Amino acid sequence: MDSGTIMQGAAIGFFAWFFLRYVIFGFYTVNQNERAVKTSFGRAHRLSDTTTLTLPIAERLSNDEKKRYVYPQVRVIPPGGPYFRWPWQKVHKVSIATQTVNMALDVESPEANHGGTLLEAVTKDQLNTGLTGDIRYRVSEQNLYAYIFGIKNPIAHVMGYFVSVLRQRIANFEAPQKEQAGLSNVLGEAVSVQGVSINDLRKNLRDINDHMDQECQSSEARYGMVLDASLITGIDPPPEVESALAAINTAHNQVSSDISLAQAAADQKIVQSQRAVEIETLRAQAEVQPLIAMAQQLGELKKSGTEALRSYRRYVRLDLYAKAEQAIQEVQK
Predict the structure, then answer these.
(1) If pLDDT is split at 50, 70 and 90, which confidence band does 145 have?
(2) Closest by CA position to 147, among listed 2, 255, 51, 37
């Protein structure tokens, strides 16, 4: 076999491999829950000069953050296909499905936070509490550049940001003024200083979750990930204060029960007093009505003349004589 035949066979083999590798396998599809970004020589296909600062997601950023978190808008490939890419192009696919993860998970150190099961935080009264719960997140379709190219490990950044905001909230949390005032009046100032913050946190879990949702809305512009919801489900105090908190809760429940009973009794007495006043008012009105009627009759008689009034007086006097058992008449001497 001469060298020309060998070169011809090598050329045919190369073109067959090239056709199979970059033409046949150059077609690709994008699933329904996926989005894709295509790069040419490592550069993503951008949409002119627009950035994330032109989108509503940037409204949650401060002025300083707007200078640091500026990402270009890239052309997003929607679900469908088949699409084609050239050999110098690369397709980056990401799932935009909502995912749930334990909020104590540390993706860089899985053994941290008790193996990713319990997140510790310090309250305002210097108690180390354990927090349990989940967070739901998804990749932002409006900021795929940040997720794919801007951040090395987006989920690690998002989890770190979430944990820092949560710990700050726990450390500075105070009960609403109305609840704190009521608790101080019931249990005294000493109780309002020692250990009540744990109870306040437990009673206001919904408010804490809402606060976390609001504070983490900037994560979409920061890291290209949307925190759909934070689901903090448990707050566990240290074992050494668990019994003290149980005693406080028991005392608080007992006092609250006594107050409720006292209020119910007071309300019942108020209703009874109101009824008694209404009854006496009706009685007085019943006694006044005959007098009013008599006054009206005397007025009509007066209009008829003095003789009619004298006749009426005589009639009334005779009626009284008929009802009386004894009559005393004064005799003039």
Answers:
(1) very high
(2) 37
